[in-house]
Amino acid sequence: CNCDPPGLRYIGNCSYVDNTKQCDCPKGYEFSSTFHECEDINECLLGSVCPSTTNCVNVPGGFQCECKRGYELESDWDNPKEVGCKDINECSLGGTCTSGTTRCINTPGSYDCVCTEGYYATAAVKGDTYMPMYNVCYGKKTQWEGSVAEAIFSKGIKEQRIPHITL
């Protein structure tokens, strides 16, 4: 049984059903629009094939689920739909929010450093853009005291009332 058309590439299975030759693509592949070859199916485009804490990676004939940044493997990869990745608690690892005037708060896939009570972050504001100047908190008003801005930025200081300057 041969499913390879002359001059064209075919990666498939050939079988006879009721004395009729039948060609099928292997699992993870489908016929191209010309039906002359089997093309890889991108399972990642089909919807939620991986848990929300993972990224889907298409591979020939299948897919893989990889933990997103800030997450680590929670189970084995034998059944990709059952795999989960758990949040890494960066605060428990050390090396985060090390200024002594900040404390670390774990968030899903990341963390925030917040000023401890009585301390304030220093920032500069240019238009509507918040620009962190230092990843530390200060214990008193600074020479740049001005109007109040809200500041939230990934892996940096998070504080509601921030003394700032306008650039």
TrEMBL record:
<feature type="domain" description="EGF-like">
    <location>
        <begin position="87"/>
        <end position="125"/>
    </location>
</feature>
<dbReference type="InterPro" id="IPR018097">
    <property type="entry name" value="EGF_Ca-bd_CS"/>
</dbReference>
<dbReference type="InterPro" id="IPR001881">
    <property type="entry name" value="EGF-like_Ca-bd_dom"/>
</dbReference>
<dbReference type="Pfam" id="PF07645">
    <property type="entry name" value="EGF_CA"/>
</dbReference>
<protein>
    <recommendedName>
        <fullName>EGF-like domain-containing protein</fullName>
    </recommendedName>
</protein>
<keyword id="KW-1015">Disulfide bond</keyword>
<dbReference type="GO" id="GO:0005509">
    <property type="term" value="F:calcium ion binding"/>
</dbReference>
<dbReference type="InterPro" id="IPR049883">
    <property type="entry name" value="NOTCH1_EGF-like"/>
</dbReference>
<dbReference type="InterPro" id="IPR050751">
    <property type="entry name" value="ECM_structural_protein"/>
</dbReference>
<dbReference type="InterPro" id="IPR000742">
    <property type="entry name" value="EGF"/>
</dbReference>
<feature type="domain" description="EGF-like">
    <location>
        <begin position="40"/>
        <end position="74"/>
    </location>
</feature>
<keyword id="KW-0245">EGF-like domain</keyword>
<dbReference type="InterPro" id="IPR009030">
    <property type="entry name" value="Growth_fac_rcpt_cys_sf"/>
</dbReference>
<keyword id="KW-0677">Repeat</keyword>
<keyword id="KW-0732">Signal</keyword>
<dbReference type="InterPro" id="IPR000152">
    <property type="entry name" value="EGF-type_Asp/Asn_hydroxyl_site"/>
</dbReference>
